[in-house]
Amino acid sequence: xxxxxxxxxxxxxxxxxxxxxxxxxxxxxxxxxxxxxxxxxxxxxxxxxxxxxxxxxxxxxxxxxxxxxxxxxxxxxxxxxxxxxxxxxxxxxxxxxxxxxxxxxxxxxxxxxxxxxxxxxxxxxxxxxxxxxxxxxxxxxxxxxxxxxxxxxxxxxxxxxxxxxxxxxxxxxxxxxxxxxxxxxxxxxxxxxxxxxxxxxxxxxxxxxxxxxxxxxxxxxxxxxxxxxxxxxxxxxxxxxxxxxxxxxxxxxxxxxxxxxxxxxxxxxxxxxxxxxxxxxxxxxxxxxxxxxxxxxxxxxxxxxxxxxx
Length: 310
Known about the structure:
The chain is mainly α. The chain has a single domain (3-297), classed as ABC transporter involved in vitamin B12 uptake, BtuC, CATH 1.10.3470. The chain is 73% helix and 0% strand. The longest helix has 32 residues, at 3-34. It is globular, with a radius of gyration of 20 Å.
């Protein structure tokens, strides 16, 4: 493989690793919002997933145990949101913000003893012969299991929401929980299930950060990725395949600022570090200008409290 090919492969692999945690979190939040629930606690769930996955993986020596633990930690934190926002009918925005603060503090507390712990990272897929094909082999087969899981979940979520009766029911709950309840659908149970799935996906996104992207534990290592994932859901107009596209675009912006720094561009490093977040703001501003499209695609019951009669 020539030097240019090696650079291309390296850039693409790095973009994929930057996009994967965003994709996990965005897919989870997308399902939650399609069910009519607005959970702003993505950042907190990702952090708890990151420390739970790292602690379990280093403690047991099993990456599988770490990944499962991260998903369970994210789902558990989502259940806290479910109890407060759905059970006690508290304001969903305030509850989500509180969940983020809680997750940040809890992960910092639990992670104190793991700062500086080494971890080898997740093993990459190894396929004889196919993996040795120049350029194509490393790009398609040079990733770890979580990358392929994120792509598989993208297809699975798109199929579930668009092709299954259960997905149609979930979308109906997000559009009009009163009508869905009148038809006999268990609105609260559907929303709790969506929250559990969303929390587990956020936990997987956090696990990818601590086990693969930068295999270590550091406080606040999500660095705002949970908020970017929330913006991705709006960018994607609540469609999974567009969420995947958006995740890879934002992953590319993240890597762009890293390469710009290494290339020695005469710009302050702080400005280059802001690029992913500036891109998030610009995308949200552009989307908000098209109010007709937002009204057409936004779940009508998003963020509304469901108060079952009787």
